[in-house]
Specification:
CATH superfamily of chain A: Thiamin diphosphate (ThDP)-binding fold, Pyr/PP domains
Mean pLDDT of chain B: 93
Largest sheet of chain B: 6 strands, parallel
Shape of chain B: globular
Bound molecules: thiamine diphosphate, magnesium ion
Helix content of chain B: 25-40%
Low-confidence stretches of chain B: 1-10
Strand order of the largest sheet of chain A: 2-1-3-4-8-7
Radius of gyration of chain A: 19 Å
Number of strands of chain A: 8
CATH architecture of the largest domain in chain B: 3-Layer(aba) Sandwich
Distance between the termini of chain B: 39 Å
Number of domains of chain B: 2
Strand order of the largest sheet of chain B: 3-2-4-5-7-6
Structural class of chain B: alpha/beta
Largest interface: B-C, 56 and 56 residues
Oligomer: heterotetramer
């Protein structure tokens, strides 16, 4: 019963993310959203399970692929659409676009389009939390590809040495743009983290919101007790790397790999719940889109504000 | 070669996109230089760095053209190591912004190796970096660091503005240049078609006159050369103003005498660069002119560049963030005829609309 | 405070080394700002960044002042993360050259965060980087990247040239500045003693007149301000030439009106910077003057900077690589009296000998 | 017997290194060597054992602390002293100084004063060797501190993925300037390398030239067969980080730690062999110093050569 309620809550948010991104796909040909979009369709369960397990005052540092985390952490939909539209009422007044969604009021910190570059930010925030006492934690969200960058090594080492409460959260969709993981990585993430004395866990069932939530609860408890943790969650990117299309016809990956995932995806499998919840969510989205459309475009007055 | 020299007319002009020119030179490098290789994220995928490396992995094999993990600093170091033992590495960054992760290897290592070891070591190599613009790419996918790199002796920095420039410069660099070269390619150029002239009009590894004129000198870089040429045509047609356009082309080793000679003739200057004005290309142009003759200009020059802020993503902001064709024409006319020149300006605001509506791939 | 204001005479001048001034401001930051902390390689060791952090780890504890692994990029990212949640991080690089390893975090991240998120996020922080010079430190321990950093909007770049500048600027930066600041400190300044004037002569976060004069304007940065002041005294004594020395001080936000006003008065310009001339500070000075009035100068300015090469290590080369006091005096005299000024030049060649024989610690 | 001959050969080179650095110490107060010097006194056995085990055509990429590797790889002594003196006949004409010794003719490639920055160079050279065929290998020499930099992670991963013949050689003196290893590193190097699938070995007996040589022979054989290898060799820096003095009075480390090493140091223990070989070696050094003193200083003509 309790699980059932949680499931509905998670499902609702996951569905909202999917419908939002499907709306983006629908709107895209109109050129109203002139921003490179990195869709998380297929990966929603990760954002939803993770954010539900975190406390409201825990922080998430994210990437260019963060529509899901923005929504799951509680960011406002109208401000998000206005941001994608490049309007004044966008959460960042149109200066951020899709790649830099942020909502610090609900704990979604900056999203960067430079791969791996927010990982040390989460470590730094966690370092502050530790010095101040209390038990807030910070989560660094990143893709599998990000772990190849040197700064990942520096961040793990520092976090382990200083014993800061940071959760390293890897969304493993197996791809960096069009490159498959085995040609990029000689290591397995959890074993690699272990070399730094950092505990970790890989979750294969990244489609399962409850499993993600549970794994994150456990990881977060570990982190809250004062140790970093690496949580790696397998997931699947249905769409192309950037943009709103599919990319199977380029033959760099097979539909099979994604289809296997889709067969387990609750947002597809649980069609009944989708049907039940969709109308209300679509209305929310309609409202947000209307808000964005009504919002004025920024201009000369805004061009040079907030530079320093 | 003798054949071609004997009948120059046989070599007629053709149309080639910038990406096509890049692909030809990459192909040529691999074909002519057994030790050349290309590495970079996605160089062997179906997008092939926006079409500039497509098919080469298939043609030359995975040992010559290969994908790498996300490791900008490491990759650049690997390239230097290979160069030191006689290879010719070509590396790519699909955004210039990512080259900042390799700054240590570029500035502290590649730029220093020849001098620091008194000529004992050389690292000839080509680093291709692409400047992004438009469609809300924003603050981290839009930077154009030519002034940054050109400040450091040891680096050669070029910004080819046409297919011709690519075809003429890249082989010269790859086959003969002794040191590291950074080529800054502008994403908006990739899909444009250019007419390739016969071989006697070679683009040198320095500046050249892209259009002759007598009233105003426009010193431009990269895609702003195209803007300047369009604007020059416009002011010629509408106002009979004759603008001379100089493509600075090499940022580290420009032909300053050429620039000074032009300004000596026109006494009026517009600079049009792809980056910020502060500590940028325009300042160096001013310095070079002042060092030669502080009385060259009749009036303050006009300078076109990005607004003094990171790049915003909203289209309404992007449109005013970058100098438009409108701004470029106005700058030239103001130089030639004063602020109240009274001539109609072109209406289109954004260069990205002028050529084509850029919407990726990013 | 009221007390001090009531009897200004009580606050008399004192002598304080540059390192001492740095230590005072670091101490003050930790004392006044509970969220301030200092991290960097060796900040807590007995050398304490050349004496600028010595004893602070003992005084404030390892949570406020701590050593880090070799991780320039990571450390800068950690600092940004801490700043985003309200801390005030101070990081150090014992050589400016090492900041190139952190370039991505500095340029793509810290410089962008305020604007890119429309003011939702701020990262106030201080990055202290030290420029090396002399005793054969060579190509990788001598670079002075002010022009590089100042090119990027979002960064504030200062180069304090005296203990007074440190004492006045650092608290203002740490307590009130909303964004990331890069302070470029010159190693040769550290061991010099300066007289600290009463509080009414504050060094602003922009340029200021370091010495008034009427014949030649010298725009200088960092340790070159000292060189310029010595040279100004020399030309005053020997040739009655009155040189006005402007300390540019803030490289990203100079007071260009002040510079222009001075040049309008003197009509003669010397620039003296710690880096290369190409795409450097001198170019931006020229640009700012030209934009205001292209007829300001009577003759080409003189520009002092590093020779256009990486820094060599041999003393005989180093001595001619950097502008000497000899060169500085000659530049001023040539501006004031022409090439054949006929006045004896000081014999000493190297600035490092002028102040003290620098031999480390490095 | 054979071992005895090898021992003498190695010992002679090690002693030469030590005497050279002692000569540098003696000369330093005269200000004839105006170059920051990072002495390897105490660490000579590593350079000597490693270089003896490598083939003449194998390459070594080194650091600012490379007097030992320069000599052990076969670099000329007179050109080295002339370089330290900043003279025209210096191997790099006085542009390199102590921190950037190189002798590509005998396989000592560039030494960098930026920590860790030559590690990927060795990987790149090894990549070339692999593509060209043959069995040359490249060795990256670096200190324990260097492994903290992000580029170390990137280099390991790439070397493992591409299976390039590179030997990662860590000289572990336990210090980075004045910082002890445990406060800087959360990992053990060999376990860490194992996470990338790179085999490795730690040798505690870094004072023992024969043991270093043997370990390097085995490591090099592994590398020559086409796999990277990490060889970590414990050693001891007797002098201060940079400069010619001692630094025990600063109390950041104890004399004990170094004394234990000295008690096993053949260059101290084997006083007889030292006495036997020193006179000839000192004469070699005298000649090199005389060469340096006689060499002219570079000037305007050389200032702007070899910039590109
Ligand atoms: C430092 C850097 N290098 C390269 C890129 C280009 N790039 C953008 S996304 C991406 C792939 C990242 O893969 P991963 O971290 O797995 O995230 P995913 O896109 O799969 O979510 C790359 C290489 C970049 N943005 N930043
Ligand atoms: C990138 C970089 N950061 C910092 C420094 C300053 N520095 C010089 S040597 C050194 C310690 C290096 O330690 P290790 O790698 O163990 O080598 P060792 O000096 O012990 O031989 C440091 C931090 C540097 N030269 N380069
Ligand atoms: Mg991925
Ligand atoms: Mg060490």
């Amino acid at each position: 019963m309790k699980d059932e309620a949680i499931y509905r809550r998670l499902f609702r948010t996951a569905l909202l993310i999917r419908l939002v991104e499907e709306r983006i796909i629908a709107l895209y040909p109109s050129d109203k959203i002139q921003s490179p979009v990195h869709l998380s369709i297929g990966q929603e369960a990760v954002a939803v399970g993770v954010c539900d397990a975190l406390r409201a005052d825990d922080l998430v540092f994210a990437t260019y692929r963060s529509h899901g985390f923005y929504i799951a952490k509680g960011g406002k939909l109208d401000a998000m659409f206005a941001e994608l539209y490049g309007r004044k009422d966008g959460i960042s007044g149109g200066k951020a676009g899709s790649m830099h969604l942020a909502a610090p009021d609900v704990g979604l910190m900056g999203s960067s389009a430079v791969v791996a570059s927010t990982i040390p930010h989460a470590v730094g925030a966690a370092l502050s939390f530790k010095r101040r006492g209390g038990d807030r934690i910070a989560a660094a969200v990143f893709g599998d590809g990000a772990t190849e960058e040197g700064v990942y090594h520096e961040s793990l080492n520092f976090a382990a040495l200083m014993r800061v409460p940071v959760l390293f959260l890897c969304e493993d969709n197996g791809l960096a743009v069009h490159s498959h993981r085995p040609i990029r990585q000689s290591y397995r993430l959890i074993e690699h983290a272990a070399a730094y004395g950092i505990a970790g866990r890989r979750l294969e069932e990244g489609w399962d919101m409850l499993a993600v939530r549970q794994a994150t609860l456990e990881a977060a408890a570990h982190v809250r007790s004062g140790e970093p943790f690496v949580l790696e969650i397998a997931t699947s990117r249905y769409k192309e790397h950037v943009g709103v299309g599919e990319d199977f016809h380029f033959n760099y990956r097979t539909t099979d790999s994604v289809d296997a995932w889709k067969r387990r995806d609750p947002l597809i499998v649980d069609a009944k719940l989708v049907a039940e919840l969709s109308p209300e969510l679509e209305r929310e989205i309609d409202a947000a889109v209307a808000y964005a459309e009504a919002s004025p475009a920024p201009g000369r007055l805004e061009l040079l504000t907030d530079v320093i | 070669m003798t054949m071609a020299a004997a009948k120059p007319l046989a070599q007629s002009s053709r149309v080639l996109s910038y990406a096509g020119a890049l692909l030809e030179t990459m192909d040529g490098a691999l074909r002519d230089h057994p030790n050349a290789f290309i590495m970079g994220q996605g160089v062997d995928d179906f997008k092939g760095i926006f079409g500039s490396t497509t098919g080469l992995a298939e043609k030359y094999g995975a040992k010559r053209v290969f994908d790498v993990p996300l490791m900008e600093e490491g990759m650049t170091g690997v390239a230097i190591g290979a160069a030191l033992v006689g290879d010719y590495p070509i590396t790519t960054h699909i955004r210039a912004d990512f080259s900042f992760l390799a700054m240590n290897q570029i500035i502290n290592m590649a730029a220093k190796y020849s001098y620091m070891f008194g000529g004992l070591m050389r690292c000839p190599m080509l680093i291709r970096i692409v400047v992004g613009r438009s469609w809300g790419q924003g603050a981290q996918h839009s930077q154009s660091p030519q002034a940054t790199f050109a400040h450091y002796p040891g680096l050669t920095v070029v910004m080819p503005s046409s297919s011709q420039a690519v075809l003429d410069m890249y082989p010269a660099i790859i086959n003969r240049h002794p040191g590291p070269v950074i080529s800054i390619e502008h994403r908006l150029l990739y899909n444009l078609d250019f007419t390739i002239s016969p071989a006697d009009k070679r683009v040198p590894l320095t500046s050249y006159v892209a259009r002759e004129g007598s009233d105003v000198t426009v010193v431009a870089t990269s895609v702003m050369v195209l803007e300047a040429l369009r604007a020059a045509q416009y002011v010629q047609d509408r106002a009979g103003v004759s603008a001379e356009v100089i493509d600075l082309n090499s940022i580290s080793h420009p032909d300053w005498e050429l620039v000074a000679a032009s300004v000596r003739k026109t006494r009026r200057l517009v600079t049009a660069d792809t980056s910020w004005l502060e500590y940028g290309v325009g300042g160096e142009v001013c310095r070079q002119l002042m060092m030669r003759d502080p009385g060259l200009l009749r009036q303050p020059p006009a300078m076109l560049g990005m607004a003094p802020a990171p790049c915003p993503t909203a289209k309404s902001l992007e449109d005013i963030y970058y100098p438009s064709q409108h701004d470029t024409v106005d700058a030239i006319l103001t130089q030639a005829k004063g602020k109240n020149h009274g001539i109609d300006l072109p209406v289109e605001r954004s260069m990205t609309e002028g050529y084509k509506r850029f919407r990726g791939p990013f």
